[in-house]
Write a structure and sequence with these properties.
single chain; about 120 residues; mainly alpha; 5 helices
C-alpha cells in the first residue's frame, strides 16, 4: 500500500512541477481539456450549425460517429480506428445507397497521408 501511495504522490509532484514550469515560461493550459473526441466534434458541429456552413455534412458525420462509438478518446485515435470507421461507413453506405455515390467513392479512395 505504501508503494501505491508513493507512486500517486510522485505523479502529483511531477504534474505540479510541470504546471509550475509552464506558468514560469508563460505557457497556459487550454481553458478546455478535451478527452472525448465526440464532445470536441459536437462543439465544432454546433458552430457549423450556427453559421450554416456545411452543416448537413457535419451533422451526418456527427451522427455516424456516435453510431460507430459514442466515447472516442483522443488517445484512442489511431490509423486502425480510422480504418475501422471507414469500413463502418462503407458498410452503412452500401446498405443505404448506391455504391457509386460520390461519398462512397471519396471514402473508398481516401488514404492516410504520410508526413515526413
Amino acid at each position: 500500500m505504501n508503494k501505491q501511495t508513493l507512486a500517486i504522490a510522485e505523479k502529483v509532484r511531477v504534474e505540479r512541477l510541470h504546471q509550475l514550469q509552464n506558468e514560469s515560461f508563460g505557457i497556459k493550459k487550454p481553458a478546455k481539456m478535451y478527452l472525448n473526441f465526440n464532445t470536441f466534434f459536437l462543439e465544432l458541429w454546433e458552430e457549423r450549425k450556427r453559421t450554416g456552413v456545411n452543416f448537413a455534412s457535419w451533422e451526418s458525420v456527427y451522427k455516424q460517429l456516435n453510431n460507430f462509438n459514442k466515447k472516442i478518446l483522443f488517445t484512442e485515435i489511431t490509423e486502425r480506428l480510422m480504418e475501422e470507421f471507414k469500413a463502418y461507413l462503407l458498410k452503412r453506405l452500401h446498405q443505404n445507397s448506391a455504391p457509386n455515390t460520390s461519398i462512397s467513392s471519396n471514402i473508398l479512395f481516401t488514404k492516410p497521408t504520410e508526413e515526413n
